[in-house]
Amino acid sequence: VRREIEAFLKKYPEMEEAFGYDFIKTHWQDILILRKSAGKEADSLFNYGLIGLKKSFGIKWISKDEHWRGLVNLHIAIGNYGWFTFAYGLPKLKEGFYIKWINDHWEDLVMLGQHSAGKDTSLLFESGLPGLKKAFGDDWLETNWQNLLIVAKEAGKLTSDLFCEAIPYFKELITHQNLI
Questions:
Q1: Are 89 and 95 in contact (CB under 8 A)?
Q2: Residue 180, pLDDT above cutoff 60
Q3: How far apart are CA 126 and CA 32, in angstroms?
């Protein structure tokens, strides 16, 4: 295993700089899973995705078991587009919602990403959820959060389109009483 890790770090020296050898060794099996799920975009995942995520969230946040497990599961669902969600989508979400909200809703956010799995998952976090917050406000979002999760399960890969475009477009027609 040591030789595999050393070969990995030779190819991706930024990973050791950002995460450290011990983190990589401890999470080696998951890193192999991430590399497989990234497919042809593995270089982007290790050169940009995880690095961007670490810059935004920090190693302490990423290292928490529930966060790391969620990130791995999210990436497995998204596949080769996962690096983009890590580098841009989740950091943008943090700008609009802050870490406490993300922590409180982490399992739901992973589920949303899994249901919308694909290249548009990053958009869900970059503009879909922030757009709903901007259009309706924090209170509406919290009041309707469970309903939005139900809608996302039904919408599947159309979740990003729905949250980014359709729901905000019909803002005047939607109330918390008639969302579903």
A1: no
A2: no
A3: 27
Cα(34)–Cα(85) distance, rounded to whole angstroms?
Answer: 13
CA–CA dist 16, 146 (Å, integer): 39
Helices (H), the chain: 2-11, 13-19, 21-26, 28-38, 42-44, 50-63, 65-78, 82-84, 90-104, 106-115, 121-123, 129-136, 138-143, 145-155, 159-161, 167-169
- What whole-number distance in Å separates Cα of residue 16 and Cα of residue 24? 7
Angle 98-37-108 from CA coordinates, rounded to 5°: 35
* 21 vs 62: CA distance, rounded Å: 15
Q: Which residue, 47, 57, 59, 77, is CA-closest to 152?
A: 77
Other CB atoms within a 10 A radius of the CB of residue 90 amount to: 23
**pLDDT digit string (tens) for 75-88?**
999 999 999 999 99
